[in-house]
Amino acid sequence: MKRLAGLRQAQGIERVIDHLQGCLREQQALPDVASLATVAHQSPYHFQRLYRALTGESPGQTLDRLRLLNALQALQQPDASVTDAALAAGYESAQALARRCRQRLDTTPRALRADAALRQQWQQLLAHPPADVDAVTAAPLKVEVRALQPFEVVLLRAKGAFGDLDASFGRLYQWAQAQGLADDLLHLVGIAIDDHRDVPAQAHRFDCGMGFATALPQLSSPLRRQALGVGPHAVVHHVGPYEQLQAVGDALLRDWWPDSGHALAEAPLYFHFLDDPEQVPAHQLRADVCLPLAG
Question: Of 31, 41, 168, 253, which is least surrounded by CB within 10 A?
Fold first, then answer.
């Protein structure tokens, strides 16, 4: 816990948490990612992923946790009604607070107000980011820092469940066939815009990408091109379900990067898929998690 707290302080994440507390006091909406990245003095490319790695939650989930914590603190006042506590914490109504208590705490505001021990138990848990509460000792990552060969990919933005990304890769492959590029396919890559662990399936965004041995033709919307593999990268080879790749990225930023002596490049972390989930069992799927480094 102390190491994570120190990393959050060093990487500007504590400034963001303080800023979110201020938003709650002023009853302001969640700031956008670019604004929070500026508060943290972090690159927008890496802020969300770094925040998630060091807290175990998204900024929106932090705001939700702190709002609920504020409501519990208000409920401990002897003369505070549930409505008073709800409005003081920024909920629209007592019903909204009751609904959130049922969803997250499996209890009611009235029960929390009446039971000091139960209320204090939840206050202690909500006072800390999940990464502190759920901290475990993981096996050391096997990280290789190496210069990759730059390559260009065509990207298609997918929106939907992580498990349904095959459909978007299928659309890309159909485009490649129409362009006469299918036989030159070299790379299957992915760039997570959202974390599938934190957003509803219908809101999840993910860039599916393909790279080829020949130059890309002119592209039209919704396709676009991006250069990857430029400069040194920290690479972790993962074997297992692709749904675990986000957690590998977390570990890379949390457990390896802070003490590595490397700065992060202004480029996105990406997944280099080495197997087809339709042909290879989930526990045997291979992928490289590639973190661009300044160099």
Answer: 41
Encode pLDDT of 18-67 as tens digits: 999 999 988 888 899 999 999 999 988 899 999 999 999 999 999 999 99
Q: How far apart are the first and last CA of the chain?
A: 31
Q: How far apart are CA 151 and CA 227, in angstroms?
A: 6
Domain 143-292, CATH homologous superfamily name and number: Regulatory factor, effector binding domain (3.20.80.10)
CB 288 within 8 A of CB 239: no
Topology classification of domain 2-133: Arc Repressor Mutant, subunit A (1.10.10)
pTM for this predicted structure: 0.89
Structure tokens at 245: 């790749």
Instruction: With CA atoms as reference, report the closest residue to 59 among 33, 97, 89.
Output: 33
Say if residues 272 and 249 touch (Cβ distance below 8 Å).
Answer: no
C-alpha–C-alpha distance, residues 248 and 190, integer Å: 14
Domain residue extents for the chain: 2-133, 143-292
Token pair of 250, please? 């977390």
Summarize pLDDT for 197-255 with one digit per residue, the tens. 999 999 999 999 999 999 999 999 999 999 999 999 999 999 999 999 999 999 999 99
